[in-house]
Amino acid sequence: MGALERDTYRDTWVRYLGYANEVGESFRPLVPVPVVWASYGVATAYVTADTIDKGRKAATAHAQDPAQAMRVAVAMGDTFVWQSLASVAIPGFTINRLCAASLALLGAVTRWPPAVRRWTTTAVGLAAIPLIITPIDRTVDFLMDSTLRKLYKAPGEPPAPH
How far is the C-alpha of 108 from the C-alpha of 90, rounded, in Å? Predict the structure, then answer.
């Protein structure tokens, strides 16, 4: 991937599809559960599309390399694990627990009507999304650099930017 090449899945509006499940979790107090699960479907489709894209790019970049299949597998595996953790699992869990705690706290300390508590919880969840993205991304980078990437990283090769 060239220095000037734009990554559709990370440098454009398409990246926000990876956050669909956080939006779904934020709206959990207001919508039927199947809507929340559908938001996970959107985020999973994003992860899958990015994984396929990185595999195709690795295949093209290493077309003459005898170890092409391994390079493609590593590129796809790294992308899938990183995106699954940083875009779906950890942020979804974080927003889910934040909203659950917010709803419980509002129920315990306010006399607001249930609809106001649910809308407030949704607002808290939505407001938290931009605040959790960078810390989660950096934490997943650190975790993968400290574990999984040590298994397949070539000496002197920096980890792929996310």
Answer: 27
Over residues 5-28, the mean pLDDT reads 91
Tell me, yes or no, if the pTM score tops 0.85.
yes
**Dihedral, CA of residue 139, residue 140, residue 142 and residue 144, to nearest 10:** 160
Q: What is the pLDDT of residues 128-148, one digit of tens each?
A: 999 999 999 999 999 999 999
Question: Which helix (DSSP H) or strand (DSSP E) does residue 140 occupy?
Answer: helix 114-146
Q: Which amino acid is at 64?
A: Q
DSSP state of 19: G
The distance of Cα 79 from the centroid of its chain, to the nearest Å, equals 11
Tell me which long-range contacts 130-139 makes (C-beta under 8 A, separation of at least 24). 132/22, 132/91, 132/94, 132/95, 133/19, 133/91, 136/86, 136/90, 136/91, 136/94, 137/86, 137/162, 139/90
Tokens of 141: 């980078």
The 10s digit of each residue's pLDDT in 75-97 is 999 999 999 999 999 999 999 99
Instruction: Give me 82's structure tokens.
Output: 């990183």
Cα atoms found within 13 Å of the Cα of residue 38, Cβ hemisphere only: 7
| CB contact set of 104 (below 8 Å; sequence gap of 6+) | none
- Structure-block tokens of residue 15: 């990246």
Distance of CA 161 to the CA centre of its chain: 14
